[in-house]
Amino acid sequence: MSEHEIPLSRPDLSSVEEELVVRVLRSGRLSLGPMQEEFEQAVTKRAGRRHGVAVSNGTCGLHLALLALGVGPGDEVITTPFSFIASSNVILHVGATPVFVDICPRTLNLDPTRLDAAITPRTKAMLAVECFGNPAYMEQYEAFAARHEIPLIEDCCEALGCSLRQRPCGGFGRVGVFGFYPNKQATTGEGGVIVTDDDALADHCRALRNQGRAPGAASAGGASTGSWLSHPYLGYNYRLSELQAAVGAAQMRRFDEIVQRRQHVARLYVERLRGHPEIIVPTVDEETTQSWFLFVVRLSTRFGAEERDRIIRGMRTHDIGCAPYFPCIHLQPPYRRLGKGPGSFPIAESVSGRTIALPFFGRLSGREVDLVAQTLELMIQRESFSRRDG
Hints:
Elements: H1 15-27, H2 34-47, E1 51-55, H3 58-68, E2 76-79, H4 86-93, E3 97-100, E4 123-129, H5 138-148, E5 152-155, E6 163-164, E7 167-168, E8 175-179, E9 192-196, H6 199-209, H7 242-253, H8 255-273, E10 279-280, E11 288-289, E12 295-299, H9 305-317, H10 346-352, E13 355-358, H11 366-389
Parallel strand pairs: 2-3, 2-4, 4-5, 5-8
Antiparallel strand pairs: 1-9, 6-7, 6-11, 8-9, 10-12, 12-13
Helix pairs in contact: 1-7, 2-7, 3-4, 3-6, 8-11, 9-11
């Protein structure tokens, strides 16, 4: 690995995170403590919700949301084929079936005009993903879910700090789930937070994350009373440690400055690349505020997946981290049994074959952005010459 490599992502960490982690270590309390409470409250406030439930990661949060809503075997959940695979895996985890709907080519979110065709008597919920943090159509999804009397689960794992018409992501639908993987706007290393206004659903998720214990059960030190070893529900160990919560609490204290840096880097990329005839930069509507999870460009429709992959390999040989985001879920091996092969969702498949996630994090310099852009342009030009020669 070259010392000059520009990585795909890098977390924004500071002495604040270090200070809070050390404080936890010195306290001796490593789980279910005050750092978790601070972290939950900070995320809940950002989402404009009443409850926040910290969990091990965003996938666990989506899993618990489905369980708490009673989604299970024989049920169907409407969702997108263009997302990180976890948004559909959790549907399989509870024994339900994902029903995919093609996406809008501009926003990369579910096409709201296609939703009615996906409804069946077995539809139990809708799981809508804010792709790359874009909240487009969330209000239409809310209206659709209300009309059909099904809950809307908002997968806002990529959307902390984003908003639509001043409504924060995490504030749509019955329940939302944030993720805090290292490439997210804020990180805990691994972590997630479920947000909702539903008291019963929040309590159910709190119980399920903690081995099925009732919320408010005594700590392990009080096990002799029986409360810590009483399990009314079949639960999971989906807790977030105090060390992780300390990182998250520090990140939330610094969240505005972190987002401002990411927004600055995104503007640099847009200004540098928007005039290129073969590059489609992300679309952000005026009514949307973006905190920028990733910066994903698309090649023009002249290019396909094989050419895109060669461009990515070429950039990597120049020490620039990049990746295709996302492969279509319905074409992944675990989903072949659903019978949705190539051509089932043509827009998602076309987009998927042309995406390139560029290096993106708040400490990326203008010089590095320019180097990434120059290298991308060079690789596109080389691919164009190869096509012409062929």
